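About this split. The held-out portion is used to measure sequence recovery: a designer receives only the structure tokens and must propose an amino acid at every position. Recovery is the fraction of positions where the proposal matches the reference. Here is one held-out target exactly as it appears in the evaluation file.
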């Protein structure tokens, strides 16, 4: 069973942690911003150093163990089961088009339409500006 420390146990966590060992926190992911992402992901932190004045353990980037526990708590000493690491690639949502022998062929009308869109997007006079609507 993994051990966990809540935000109120931040100083206890800083005393009990081992340098060089990985610790994990859970992130809640907004479904509005990332609709195809998992609802929760975990992040991994390794404490390798100590802060100069306080002596509290910190990551190589200077993130304190007490601050991590207070802001991101609870902190776990084992990765949560059934969750994906935030640093891992997200699952593929869409598949490839058609079968392996599929070829996308553009006819003249489609090519002209794409060229027109490219011309309009590159011309600053005809480019649509955010907040400006043309009728």
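Reference sequence for scoring:
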């Amino acid at each position: 069973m993994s051990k966990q420390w809540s935000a109120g146990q931040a100083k206890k966590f800083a005393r009990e942690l081992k340098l060089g060992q990985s610790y994990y926190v859970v992130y809640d992911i907004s479904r509005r911003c990332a609709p195809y992402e998992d609802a929760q992901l975990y992040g991994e932190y390794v404490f390798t150093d100590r802060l100069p004045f306080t002596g509290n353990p910190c990551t190589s980037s200077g993130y304190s163990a007490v601050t991590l526990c207070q802001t991101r708590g609870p902190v776990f000493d084992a990765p949560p089961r059934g969750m994906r690491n935030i640093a891992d690639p997200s699952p593929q949502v869409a598949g490839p088009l058609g079968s392996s022998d599929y070829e996308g062929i553009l006819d003249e009308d489609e090519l002209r339409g794409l060229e027109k869109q490219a011309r309009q997007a590159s011309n600053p006079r005809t480019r649509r500006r955010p907040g400006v609507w043309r009728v």
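Annotator remark: The longest strand covers residues 22-28.
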